[in-house]
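Board notes (copied after class):
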Amino acid sequence: MNMSVARQTDDLTLTAAGEWWTQHRGQSPVVATAIHNGHAMRDAMKDLCKLSEEERLREEDPFTEFIVRDVPNRIVVHRSRFEVDINRPREGAIYLRPEQAWGLNVWAGDLPSEITEASLAVHDEYYAMLKSYLRGIERCHGRFVVLDVHSYNHRRAGPGADPAIAAEAPDVNIGTISMDRKKWAPVIDGFMEAVQSFDFPGGRLDVRENIAFQGRGYQARFIHEQFPDTGCAIAVEFKKIFMEEWTGEPFVETLRALRQLLASTLPVIADAVESVR
């Protein structure tokens, strides 16, 4: 297993051949993760996968690593969620049925147990690493906030169809359902205000809480279970306004603006964490 720290660049994608994830550590109570950024699959699973590269990419979260790149504490997973989904419990981390994968038939036949266990080992090791990593942040700062960054599709009806209606698809969806919302209100409210007030190209973003998603992913739940008094995990879902979701084409200036936006919230979150009791 190779978990070396990758060099920060201005490229839109991060080369991490063979790595399960990369991690960075800095002096901050804020951590960002991009656990669905990855596209890589082991050859043994790729050979059995029926989906095209484009079909997989459509349900992954490309470029989320770029958005979090200015956060000193960050973890980026490089394996595709179609090999093992870090944001689901171990027993559901491999999509064996279409209803687990947006109706997609992922595999050409049954997966041998030795293949699935090798991928589930990534899930096991990730959460062992995450717990240790966050213990370190906790030791240094007492409390911490994890920005669990994802993206979501809003043109599911097809490339030429109308997008999802705005009432159901905010530009930024904040998921908070698995946390003690009252306790962490200064953090959540401060973060949302910072995102809403950012001078985004083309106009300020529509930021709402628990609309398209509620933050029910496994990573957020794990953090709140393991760190009930000291850890706050915010699921941050960016609508794919930064790319063409049917072709994978990135919109470079929008991505740069989102990266600047996220970095601008760090001092706000750090100050708000100090007020939580």
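Comment from the instructor: The longest strand covers residues 144-152. The mean pLDDT is 94.
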